[in-house]
């Protein structure tokens, strides 16, 4: 079973979780992180490190966030792996807790 990054990561993109991942399972997009379910070893380290509380175990993803299970799997196929902490966006705190940010998701990598 894998962990899943959900809606609250969009526009926040804190990378504290990346530093603790022993499997290099995180992939980075322009304003969101995803976890590759094929790489994730279900170690439970990343949810604790996520300041936005956006990471859930697959079977605990809230009902209104279930689409993120497939979204993580799909985007992990094209987005590059991230293994080092980078600064969060300057406005990350303002976005933390904003509901329904999926409309702000940027998928294309330039």
Number of helical regions: 4
Structural class: alpha+beta
Radius of gyration: 12 Å
Query: What separation lies between the terminal Cα atoms?
Result: 31 Å
Q: How much strand? A: 5-15%
Q: How many β-strands, per DSSP?
A: 4
What does the main sheet amount to?
Answer: 2 strands, antiparallel
Write down the overall mean pLDDT.
97
Quaternary structure type: single chain
Overall geometric form: globular
Question: Helix proportion of residues, in percent?
Answer: 10-25%
Give the strand order of the largest sheet, numbering strands 1, 2, ... along the chain.
Answer: 1-4
Which spans have pLDDT < 50 for at least 5 consecutive residues? none
Taken in chain order, the helices and strands follow as EHEEHEHH
Would you kindly provide a written description of the structure presented here, covering whatever features stand out?
With 110 residues, this protein is an alpha+beta fold. 21% of the residues lie in helices and 11% in strands. The chain has a two-stranded antiparallel sheet. A two-stranded antiparallel sheet has the order 2-3. Strand 2 and strand 3 form a beta hairpin. The radius of gyration is 12 Å and the shape is globular. The relative contact order is 0.31.
């Amino acid at each position: 079973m894998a962990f899943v990054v959900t809606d609250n990561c969009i526009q926040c993109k804190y990378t504290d979780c990346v530093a603790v991942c022993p499997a290099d399972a995180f992939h980075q997009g322009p304003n969101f992180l995803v976890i590759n379910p094929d790489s994730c070893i279900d170690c439970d380290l990343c949810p604790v490190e996520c300041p936005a509380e956006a990471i859930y175990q697959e079977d605990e993803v809230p009902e209104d966030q279930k689409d993120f299970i497939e979204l993580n799997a799909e985007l992990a196929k094209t987005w590059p792996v991230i293994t080092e902490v980078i600064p969060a966006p300057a406005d990350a705190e303002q976005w933390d807790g904003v509901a329904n940010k999926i409309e702000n998701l940027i998928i294309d990598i330039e």
